[in-house]
Structure formats: structure tokens, C-alpha cells
Specification:
alpha/beta, two-stranded antiparallel ribbon, 6 helices
Length: 206
Amino acid sequence: MKILVTGFDPFDGEMVNPSIETVKRLPDRIAGAEIIKLEVPTIRYKSLKVIEEAIIRHDPDVILSVGQAGGRSDISVERIGINVDDFRMADNEGNKVTDEPVFPKGPDAYFVNLPVKSMVSRILERNIPASVSNTAGTFVCNHVTYGVRHLIATKYPGKRSGFIHIPYLPKQAAGKKGMPSMALDLMVEAVMAAIEAIVEMGERGL
């Protein structure tokens, strides 16, 4: 099995994004699967363009994207992506859109086709806080959650995709009173555990 794992570059004035830092630290093989690592721009359509180019180049079986969710206290495995871009802030190219579809002719939503609950269970077995999330937001993370599923549904059948949100790093939360955070080592371990579940469950967890 070949798994493309993506993480975003920093955005919203942050100097670091824990998602790409986590992805960089993953081993090259997990549970026998080959891991391909990719940095994605936090930019509306360019994020999907970069991911699609990697799909064409590497032909992965699974695309697993990781994103920062400042304010969340656990590892959030997303269940669904919705067909709307509604940005509360500008992306890294200055795009700030309101109530626009990701794909105008796409369905209202897509459920991810990965074993979400098994991924959460495997992370919890490592004593790392985790939960199923029913909202990926309406910023670039949701754009990718929905957009990659749409690409799979319309152009790359047979592939699977999903999304994991992770908290701030401690150094990001240090200047934000009361903001939860998680150590990078734990986030790396959590994503590895989720990938193990993807490999071991295969289609059974859907």
C-alpha cells in the first residue's frame, strides 16, 4: 500500500504549522505501507492542485491530509467535508471568500472513505486524546477534505482519502492564554497510529 500524507504550510501569521512538522517526522514506512510526504500551500485551489499533481505522480492508494485546528484539544479525525468555502480569514494568497462552493457541480457533502472510528480507537490506545469530528470547518482544511474526495469520486476511483486535525504546538499556544496544545512527538505518534488502522482495516472499516 502507498499512502500520500499531506501537511500545510504556516498561515494566519504563525511561524510554524504543526501539520507539516508532524508529516515531516513520519517514518518512510508504517505497518508495511510506503509513506509519501507532501507540503501543501494554505491556498484555496492551489492546495488541491498540488495534491492532484502528487496523485498523478505517485498513484497512492490513500490520501491522508493533516491540518492545524487551533483551539482544539485533541486529535480530531474528520468524518465529512462540505461543499462550501466560507473563510473567516484570508488564505496565504489573500483569498477571503464567503459562501462559495468548492466545486459548483459537486454534491453538498462527502463522507471520507477511511475507517474513522478505528483510527480514533487506535490513537486512544496510545493514551493520546482523540475523537471523531463532524466538522472540518469551512477554511482550506475543509476545502481539501471535500476537494480530494471529489477528485477521487470523479477522476480517481478506487482511492480513499481522509483528514486529521491536530492542535497547536506548545510554542504556538504559549502566547494565547488558555489555548490547548499538544507536544509534537504525541501528534506524530497519533498520526502513525491512525495510519496503522488504515492499513490494517483496509475496506473493512468503511
